[in-house]
Design goal:
Radius of gyration: 22 Å
Order of helices and strands: HHHH
Strand content: under 5%
Helix content: over 70%
Distance between the termini: 62 Å
Low-confidence stretches: none
Oligomer: single chain
Largest sheet: none
Structural class: mainly alpha
Number of strands: 0
Mean pLDDT: 88
Number of helices: 4
Length: 84
């Protein structure tokens, strides 16, 4: 990968200030991961902006949540000593 010197210097500054002197390759990897996380957050924001799509998403997610815990005891059954 080729970078112009000003971009390389900017990455080196970010590495020094924000990533405690991490190697530039590690900094780029972290920045890419952060970009991906921010993209996911924006997609959720877009989804929430459409009430019908958000309701559909929540309905589907609740089905998945129920299936994931299928046949597991409730916490109140598993730990009766904490029931008050």
């Amino acid at each position: 990968m080729q970078l112009d010197s000003s971009l390389r210097d900017e990455l080196a500054e970010i590495a020094e200030q924000d990533f405690r002197g991490a190697a530039l390759g590690e900094v780029v990897g972290r920045l890419v991961r952060e970009y991906k996380i921010q993209r996911i957050i924006r997609q959720y924001e877009d989804l929430r902006a459409d009430p019908e799509a958000w309701a559909d998403y929540q309905a589907e997610a609740s089905l998945t949540d129920r299936v994931a815990g299928d046949r597991l005891p409730a916490a109140s059954e598993e730990y009766p000593e904490y029931n008050a």
